[in-house]
């Protein structure tokens, strides 16, 4: 990561963007068909289908923050502009994913438990993750120079990594309303194959959407920095 320049990575992403979009559309359509064809749950009715948005978004919110934290470490250790730019570009995507998790979870919770929100460990730690994303973005735009902003935001991202295992294992460590893991668990997934396939298709469709979004944000950041450097040289 730290040996690749931002321009090289941006050019690569741009070269494969049309394939990403094509595959994303195919997977989104396939996911929609699979979700539609699934029979309603005996207890939850049609509301259980929120799972196929909620769960992939939850996976992605954790995956994106992990990537952001690792990129921040690489950026600080190796002074890598590419790593800093990756962290900056994926931060808003992670924030959107975490918001989707909280909103869909609240709707699903109200339909299932009869309440939109409870302060249990999983929901609270997810809300904290959302606030860390927001704090990261605010730090990125709180300094006059992007290098100072990257440094401050990277420190927050690294500290925020502590929250990830809390989000993941909160249902195992504490008693919560939220159900335990049904996919990434010892002994294998506990859900049926049709649910698992639909979940995975939905996840990869949403992942490709995030990658496409990331490639566009990454390009915009590079262009903004080029303009900023040009202004400094002309002064």
Report what the structure shows.
The protein has helices at residues 6-37, 51-78, 81-113, 121-140, 146-160, 163-173, 193-234. The protein is an all-alpha fold and 235 residues long. It has one domain.
Task: Offer a quick outline of the entry.
By secondary structure, this protein is mainly alpha-helical. Helix 2 runs parallel beside helix 7.
- Strand-pairing-aware structural class: mainly alpha
Number of DSSP-assigned strands: 0
Mean pLDDT: 88
Indicate the percent of residues in helices.
Answer: over 70%
End-to-end CA span: 32 Å
Main sheet attributes: strand count, strand direction, barrel closure: none
What is the general shape?
A: globular
As residue ranges, the low-confidence spans are none
Radius of gyration: 19 Å
The percent range for strand residues is under 5%
Summed up, the helix count is 7
**Total domains, how many?**
1
H-E order: HHHHHHH
């Amino acid at each position: 990561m730290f040996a690749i320049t931002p321009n090289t990575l941006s050019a690569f992403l741009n070269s494969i963007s049309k394939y990403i979009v094509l595959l994303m559309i195919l997977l989104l359509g396939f996911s929609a068909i699979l979700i539609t064809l699934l029979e309603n749950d005996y207890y939850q009715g049609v509301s259980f289908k929120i799972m196929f948005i909620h769960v992939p978004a939850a996976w992605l919110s954790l995956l994106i923050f992990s990537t952001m934290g690792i990129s921040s470490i690489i950026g600080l250790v190796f002074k890598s502009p590419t790593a800093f730019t990756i962290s900056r570009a994926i931060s808003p995507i992670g924030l959107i994913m975490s918001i989707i998790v909280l909103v869909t979870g609240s709707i699903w919770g109200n339909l299932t438990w009869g309440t939109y929100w409870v302060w249990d460990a999983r929901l609270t730690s997810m809300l904290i993750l959302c606030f860390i994303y927001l704090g990261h973005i605010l730090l990125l735009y709180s300094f006059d120079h992007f290098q100072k902003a990257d440094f401050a935001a990277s420190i927050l991202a690294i500290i925020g990594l502590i929250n990830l295992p809390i989000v993941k294992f909160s249902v195992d460590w504490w008693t919560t309303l939220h159900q335990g893991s049904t996919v990434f668990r010892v002994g294998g997934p506990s859900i049926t194959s049709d649910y698992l396939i639909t979940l995975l298709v939905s996840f990869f469709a949403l992942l490709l959407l995030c990658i496409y979004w990331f490639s566009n944000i990454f390009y915009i950041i590079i262009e903004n920095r080029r303009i900023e450097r040009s202004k400094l040289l002309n002064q």
